[in-house]
Amino acid sequence: MNRLLILIFLFMASGTAAQQVQLEISHVVAGQPMQLRTATYTNAAGDTFNITLFKYYLSNFSLVTADGKKTALTPAYFLVNEDSVASKKILLSQCPEGEYTQLSFMIGVDSVLNFSGPQDGALDPLHGMFWTWNSGYIMAKLEGTSPSSRLPNHMLQFHIGGYRAPHVTQRMVTLTLPSPLRTGPQHKSQVVLQADAMAWFNGANQVSFRQMPGFMTPGTPADRIADNYQHMFSVKKIVNQ
Amino acid sequence: MFRKAAYILFAFCLWLWIVGRNRHALTAHSPAVEYYQLKLPDSLPPPVYDFKNNPLTKEGIALGRHLFYDPKLSVDSSISCGFCHQQFAAFGHFDHAISHGVLGRTGNRSVPALFNLIWQKDFMWDGGVNHLDIQPLTPITDENEMGMDLGVLIKRLQGNKTYRKLFKAAYGTEEVTSQRLFKALSQFVVTMISFESKYDSVMRREPGVTFTAEEQGGYRTFTQKCASCHKPPFFTDYSIRNNGLPYLPSMNDVGRMRITNNTADYLKFKVPSLRNVLVSAPYMHDGRFFDIFQVFAMYDHGQQKGNTIDPLVKNGIPLTEKEQRQLYMFLNTLTDKKFLSNKELSEVLITD
């Protein structure tokens, strides 16, 4: 009988015994470290460009075990911004103890939060990632300049968003980890991720800045760029300490 | 067996107690607010607005009213919400075709009247804004309206003694956040309720109130020719349609298509309510008609019949001179004088 009681208590306590995983994200462009404003890059269409702003939302993290069991983590939203060192370190809390072979997450913000009124924290419209004239989050934003752009000051402005069918821009990313990730009280696990911004323009849907120096509404071009950047992430390292 | 069940029950009760205690800790700092119940006539459908996420309080409404009438919400402290949304014009902009903004700028659409917003599921002439609480973000940050950066605004309000007091009264702490700001504005604007017109009295069979013969005639015409889109009791079905209003190249406003990127939505705009219509001129999304008879004339013979014109009006709405006169008399019964002069909605003078 006492054992039953202990079991019940253990069950109740299990919610707090879960562990944390730290994600460290670095940004590159065609494999070179991203340098805002100063570095020049060239896309597959031959346009040279620089990047002045690069930020995006990550959410809906889950961990997958070798036998395919998927555990969704506590809902949390992160705005990753190249200009903020702190934003590139993400702490995933309440990860159940175990050994995982895949990490999956969403680039963007769930549809329901796009029409639920003002949010706070990372989702505060204060961060300039919410469209005012056409409600909804900008899931990912890349700005810069390119001599090929015909916009004023040769601007590049890609504000990718849209949550309503047919123009939906949230994308799920599933990454297979190079070695298993272990979580537990004795581990301080870390996943080192890299995002390559060139993927936005050099993916399956190639972008030429002469033809499209920007896109800032929901629509087919935004969907195609989201298809591109869905593949921008790679796992560099797993650290189980 | 019985003991086993008792243990489980005990553990469950313990768990409930722990959870309950946590919840108490969360609300321990809640302000001492006075909850406010909106007075709505019976027989209306349930509101779209979810009050559970923003329960009305006297303090919240007072804060919202202060914000609504405060020009500090604009970049040069010149234009408040109430500047364009005037109570005597049913919170539309009297005599102004298109919205005015800071530094003498103008927008490209007319100021919509504000009332009965809790039944509305989307906002703006093109329905581009999808929640009442997020609606103020648009005029506040639009460079042709209030031209304000949201971050700067939060700092400005945080630095103001009156606001620190008002936020504390409404939310328990002095902290100003965008979410608190937006929800407080909603608290005030949802109290703009208009169901006290002569039409409402007649429908409620209040003693001694009847339509005149002319009004009755207008009501008949309205029911036959207008009520499908301007559907009572709201006098709009909140839909977005192309009513045949000719396209103006100088404005180049494509309507709903700007939001959906769908050519089927070309020249579609929200059906406005006809309540208080005679005090909220000018009309149409671009305010091109200053007189309601111009609107009648447009439906009678002035439409432009493009591909996306609504099937309900594609053959026009023929209106004889008599019908137009009677319709005018009927629309006059939709003016809610109590609403237009409700002291709880009137401007507050802000000097600091």
Question: Would you kindly provide a brief summary of this structure?
Answer:
The complex is a heterodimer of chains A (241) and B (352). Chain A is 12% helix and 46% strand. Chain A has 4 helices and 17 strands.
Describe this protein's structure.
The complex is a heterodimer of chains A (241) and B (352). Chain A has 241 residues and is mostly beta strands. Chain A has one domain. Chain A is 12% helix and 46% strand. Chain A has four helices and 17 strands. In chain A, a hairpin with a 2-residue loop joins strand 1 and strand 2. The model of chain A has no long low-confidence stretch (mean pLDDT 93). With 352 residues, chain B is mostly helical. Chain B folds into two domains: 143 residues, Cytochrome Bc1 Complex, Chain D, domain 2; 138 residues, Orthogonal Bundle (Cytochrome Bc1 Complex, Chain D, domain 2), CATH 1.10.760.10. Chain B contains 13 helices and two strands. In chain B, strands 1-2 form a two-stranded antiparallel ribbon. The radius of gyration of chain B is 24 Å and the shape is globular. The termini of chain B are far apart. About 2% of the residues of chain B have low confidence. Chains A and B meet through helix 1 of A and helix 1, helix 4, helix 5, helix 7 and helix 10 of B. Chain A: Keywords: Signal. Chain A: InterPro entries: MbnP-like_dom (IPR046863).
